[in-house]
Amino acid sequence: MQALLNEILEEVRPLIGQGKVADYIPALADVPANQLAIAVYSNDGELYCAGDADTAFSVQSISKVFSLVQAIQHSGEDIWQRLGHEPSGQPFNSLVQLELERGRPRNPFINAGALVICDINQSRFAAPVLSMRDFVRRLAGNPEVLVDSRVADSEYQHRARNAAAAYLMQSFGNFHNDVEAVLRSYFSYCALRMSCADLARAFCFLANDGFCKHSGAQILTARQSKQVNAIMATSGLYDEAGNFAYRVGLPGKSGVGGGIVAVVPGRFSVCVWSPELNAAGNSLAGIKALELLSERIGWSVF
Amino acid sequence: MQALLNEILEEVRPLIGQGKVADYIPALADVPANQLAIAVYSNDGELYCAGDADTAFSVQSISKVFSLVQAIQHSGEDIWQRLGHEPSGQPFNSLVQLELERGRPRNPFINAGALVICDINQSRFAAPVLSMRDFVRRLAGNPEVLVDSRVADSEYQHRARNAAAAYLMQSFGNFHNDVEAVLRSYFSYCALRMSCADLARAFCFLANDGFCKHSGAQILTARQSKQVNAIMATSGLYDEAGNFAYRVGLPGKSGVGGGIVAVVPGRFSVCVWSPELNAAGNSLAGIKALELLSERIGWSVF
Amino acid sequence: MQALLNEILEEVRPLIGQGKVADYIPALADVPANQLAIAVYSNDGELYCAGDADTAFSVQSISKVFSLVQAIQHSGEDIWQRLGHEPSGQPFNSLVQLELERGRPRNPFINAGALVICDINQSRFAAPVLSMRDFVRRLAGNPEVLVDSRVADSEYQHRARNAAAAYLMQSFGNFHNDVEAVLRSYFSYCALRMSCADLARAFCFLANDGFCKHSGAQILTARQSKQVNAIMATSGLYDEAGNFAYRVGLPGKSGVGGGIVAVVPGRFSVCVWSPELNAAGNSLAGIKALELLSERIGWSVF
Amino acid sequence: MQALLNEILEEVRPLIGQGKVADYIPALADVPANQLAIAVYSNDGELYCAGDADTAFSVQSISKVFSLVQAIQHSGEDIWQRLGHEPSGQPFNSLVQLELERGRPRNPFINAGALVICDINQSRFAAPVLSMRDFVRRLAGNPEVLVDSRVADSEYQHRARNAAAAYLMQSFGNFHNDVEAVLRSYFSYCALRMSCADLARAFCFLANDGFCKHSGAQILTARQSKQVNAIMATSGLYDEAGNFAYRVGLPGKSGVGGGIVAVVPGRFSVCVWSPELNAAGNSLAGIKALELLSERIGWSVF
User: Fold this and answer.
1) Subunit info (chains A, B, C, D) (predicted)?
2) C251 interfaces chain D, CB cutoff of 8 Å
3) Residue B135 host element (H or E)
4) Are A84 and B230 inside 8 Å of each other by CB?
5) Which of B301, C154, C188, D3 is 20 to 30 A distant from A83 in Cα terms?
6) Which candidate from D96, D163, D165 shows the least CB-CB separation from A96?
7) Does the pLDDT of residue B4 top 90, yes or no?
8) Residue B22 in contact with residue B259, Cβ under 8 Å?
9) Where are the beta strands (DSSP E) in D61-116?
């Protein structure tokens, strides 16, 4: 596995320079584009790393999985009264469908859906951001995972599109807390800084029927764990979910920080990172690396 | 397995009466609603049946998989110049997205996408319907599979919505043959009559890396086979693809005749049938049967 | 008035070369771009002409007013059961709104609405095209008005977008005759060839409370005449109806042949012609000429 | 005229009870439904009143005309860089079109367009609300016109939909001031309390080529005045602009307080008031009263 990971990184490294680092906020635009990493955490507890796998980066939308898992933990199936688990077929931040469907987001991985999940968590936790940070620290087995407040503040300054989505949902009665407060929490989750190694460990329970081996905790039931994977498979990569299933064939979740997490159920979790994005907003080299991994080990879920 | 299938049918039988048989054409509305069947064909060549598994029914949209496989066989990746493989997030027959995306259908399992695939096949085969029928006979190992011309004619009489989609694509230059001729072929494919046993056998190659054990033919490469499964997983059940992934966790394809085919990669293909549909147009008892099967054998792809 | 018309044509003539002749069918693309004409027919029966005012051109969508008037004559208010009289806010040939509003077109001047009007007329007349031609001959006071069958055939060959609209409406039950037959009629109406002088005379009844002075016939009631003008004012110039009201301030109807008819209620009807179109598909020099006319005589309806 | 107004009110009074008073905020829901008024202000300076014509009510969207006129006064044609003057064909508060057209509202009378106009005015005036109030006092010739702060506050509490529109425009760079501050101004304008007599006087300049007879001020140029009327004619009554043109045939602007102002160019301005609204959100008895007025005096602009 170690040799395979090294080989894959060398094979995708030439893609660096062909994508574009997210630049909608300065704090993300600053990230050096030539960083590249992969980490695999197997169900028997081995961690394999290659490249800059210990360098922390901004997880961004990968945090939407953490929020969803927290919400499932405390509210279970009830959350589906507030949003769906169908692919949206629309850009991640579009309001068109949200208005036509009267403020009910299609799934928890488009921005509107993640905001509803944050609103649900906001109602539940006295200190939602601390609560999330501590949850992620336990999942990652790393007590030093931090929220980058510079990134969170900068995203809040550029909140207009997400604010529009939240107010639109509020206008349909599908938002219960103060919009500005939930936006603050939402951007704090997005601003979590974690390495590929952290994320591979943090997602291991989804490859292992909900059980997190390194911490010994059952995070979700086996059934819930499969359900989260199902939602990642149909909706985890924005507009490119179908293409990711077609090329890689694994449940996954990407972030504009350039990270992508994927799950091989029954075997391992994996995280790749390369800051440059393709036109759909997913890590260009990251998708290629996962495609090669899936090919070489002869494994997609399909 | 045999006992399990019997048990599942008994468990879902009470759902009969809670759905609605498709009635947009008389030939479908006539089907007795109390029929129920399941068939499993394993990768080691065993066929397990329960209920009315030898009764032929109208496969309808399940035929979209056959058309797609034929198109991949002769044109490979080239077909993606004409359509995508992303979930649509829209009803199966909507023209809204098709117009906004300038006549390029999202995937081969919405009607517009299947029409483009038929148009591709129409350009390739001198006798497209015979060609398809013979292909399906070989896949099913049943030389008596027929097209029900009464159903095909009746659907042609009610072609307005599909004609609109085809003409709209033609207006964008994404339709190459005579619209009426392709519609005739399309409705003939939909009007194939097959039993659950036929369909379980016909789909076995998708559970077996493209290899059809009973005929000894490699229908698709292993990679292509996974790709077809990926498209079924993200787009196979109309508006309910996400929910099917969430509840059942298997690649599948449904038809308004009440059939649903699903694939457990590496293990078996399965077909269920019950004519009554839910609000999304998928077999009500069929989805429940597959959900139970997935639960009992502890298997979803996730 | 004569001097004013001459002056206006000279003032707008430099615009020739800045627009684009319609080229979606060869028969329209052939028209020499440097033709320019204006004709005014006053309520006291005087005709004033300048430029190529006796040259016949393809009236195209201007015919939608004739169809509407015929339908009002025989069916009155009943036609509004089949379509609306609200601006669409969408391109003239879009199907998005038509699907969302279940096959009911917004108004009689978008293509879908004109097709419904043709369908209504098709049900009423044994020979709809002859009936229309004779009606227009009487309105224009010119027994030599003809349908250009080369243009009609060519448009039929390129019917895809309009066929899609008609089939979509049929799928919602809002189309009663054979689609192909109605399309043939529709394209024949569009292919009427008339001069500016013909059209100014033909529209005079709309400036005169429904009374056609030269033929002595009451074409519509005063109220109906105002209603047709109202629909032209809010929906007569495709996507540019608001801009036309803002700049010219008169009810009007344009065609892609480069003609625009406008009405000054109580005073006169006017037709301008210049084949080159602006981005919205309306005659570039034609709109400018009407703007100057409205300014110079100090008259808009507002 | 006086007799005619009395007669019209008696004729429409039976409609009271068939509509529905706006109830999205308590302050509006409280208004007694049985109030009814009409006022006409002629170009020769006569005021004719009937019913409760001196009772002040909440002008709501009628204020959008005042904002627009202020913006034209100081910025002229420049405002059209920020929004259009085309009918929208969509509900007054829809975000669908706004997103598809990248944050540029269709016209100044849908909410998004009025918010952009307020944003423009906010940049211009140190005290925008006072500035507007004083402008309206001069137009109405009534120094006691007030903003009802209870209504303004209540609307601000229910700002979600308008906040969504403003933030969406900000995300496209088409909003320059603080969203919350502009919303405060916007709701203050809507909360102006004026009577039918006030409003008839305040709109008289639009019937008189921009000249306000009672104050002796030229508010707009004749051309600008016609342009404002043109926009009212194509977009002044929400989704019902086409129907209002068809039935009444006059430029007009309505508000959910139940007022409608209309203009007979060259003759008079008129205001009707009845708090109960039809399904499109326009005063039910108000539209009927204007239809009768237009019929009886034989006058529509068409």
Assistant:
1) Homotetramer.
2) yes
3) helix B128-140
4) no
5) B301
6) D96
7) yes
8) no
9) none
